[in-house]
Amino acid sequence: QVQLVESGGGLVQPGGSLRLSCAASGSYFSINAMGWYRQPPGKERELVAGITRGGNANYVDSVKGRFTISRDNAKNMVSLQMNSLKPEDTAVYYCNAKASLRDYSPTEFNYWGQGTQVTVSS
Q1: Distance of CA 35 to CAs 51, 82, 103, Å?
Q2: Which residues pair with 96 in a beta bridge?
């Protein structure tokens, strides 16, 4: 099992920056892909950014050039640096991890953090 603890959310003005962090803990063999999702008010949850163990990252078009995802495999931590924030970025942001629980089983399970609120408003 994997527990994900998020931090770094808050209220910022348009054009400001925030850095979200997510630390994974628990009993597992390996955490593979990690990422950040967000759910704006009244909308569906969407993938914001994802990153593999090898460092390959992908982003939703709306955040390309503004957000940067990174991870520390040794610490099982993933971060999302958010710059040039816009009101449209307002959402609950969720950390996600796909983990293999046993060395003899290739099955991956999805785990979610509790969510952290990001509000961009003047």
Answers
A1: 6, 14, 22
A2: 35, 112
Query: pLDDT tens across 106-121, in order?
Result: 899 999 999 999 999 9
List, as one string, the DSSP characters of 41-56.
TTS--EEEEEE-TT--
Q: Which residues, including other chains, have CB under 8 Å from residue 54's CB and lie 6 or more apart?
A: none
CA distance 25 to 76: 8
Alpha helices for the chain (secondary structure H)? none
CA distances (Å), 12 to each of 18, 99, 121, in order?
Answer: 8, 32, 6
Please state, in angstroms and as integers, the Cα–Cα distance from residue 45 to each residue in 8, 10, 36, 41, 72, following that order: 19, 19, 10, 10, 25
Q: Is the pLDDT of residue 73 over 90?
A: no
